[in-house]
């Protein structure tokens, strides 16, 4: 009986020691970002700055917090990590659209709240301004457009709505690229083409100057080579035939 009592005592001591070494559970601990306890989307326009504030709830101890931009961890100052943590995005620009910021509990990264930025901005257009094309060749005008929400495109020629010819004009677009293709260009296609993109936040335009050049005469390469060979051989034969006369002169 004494040995049994001793073994039971030792077991209770080990159990207490294990309890001392067990880390506190994160069950019940919650986070909120800007008063949102679940993942959410934050809509904003282009602005000088926006702030995100992460707060710990239902914890009996101090909790360290971590912030991530996408997969990369944000560097936080020492006084901005415990129980509450704030980050500032400054300025908010087009590249922040669709980026996710996540606040996580340091000791249990499964406890987290993520916020995805929905940065809305009017159309911004780009593309090659002047294009030179030979008559009867094909050409494509490419208008690159960034906007949120996505805009609708229209093509103008010399400030007038472009009249599309099914046999010669083709329009194509993706979320950020609008293209106008013209097959077998003619002199009448010379002019300024305007890509107009409209959205509820505003409009954007981009001018493309199309210069149609004269068709260059085409010389068959084989015929040119053959002619050079014939001329060269003729000259050589002439020199050989008059070799004796050349020698007498010298």
UniProtKB/TrEMBL annotation:
| Record membrane topology | Single-pass type I membrane protein
One GO biological process this protein is involved in is: cell-cell adhesion
Where in or outside the cell? Answer: Membrane
Gene Ontology MF, one: cell adhesion molecule binding
Q: Which domain of life is it from?
A: Eukaryota
Instruction: Name the InterPro entries on file.
Output: Cell_adhesion_signaling, Ig-like_dom, Ig-like_dom_sf, Ig-like_fold, Ig_I-set, Ig_sub, Ig_sub2, Immunoglobulin_dom
- Residue limits of the Ig-like domain? 24-116, 123-213
Membrane-crossing ranges are 223-241
Q: Which Pfam families match?
A: I-set, ig
Q: Which GO terms describe its cellular component?
A: cell-cell junction; plasma membrane
- Alphabetical list of Gene3D superfamilies matching this protein: Immunoglobulins
CDD domains tied to this protein: Ig
Family matches, as SMART domains: IG, IGc2
**Per UniProt, which keywords does this protein have?**
Disulfide bond, Glycoprotein, Immunoglobulin domain, Membrane, Transmembrane, Transmembrane helix
**What name appears for this protein in its UniProt entry?**
TMIG1 protein
State the organism of origin.
Calcarius ornatus (Chestnut-collared longspur)
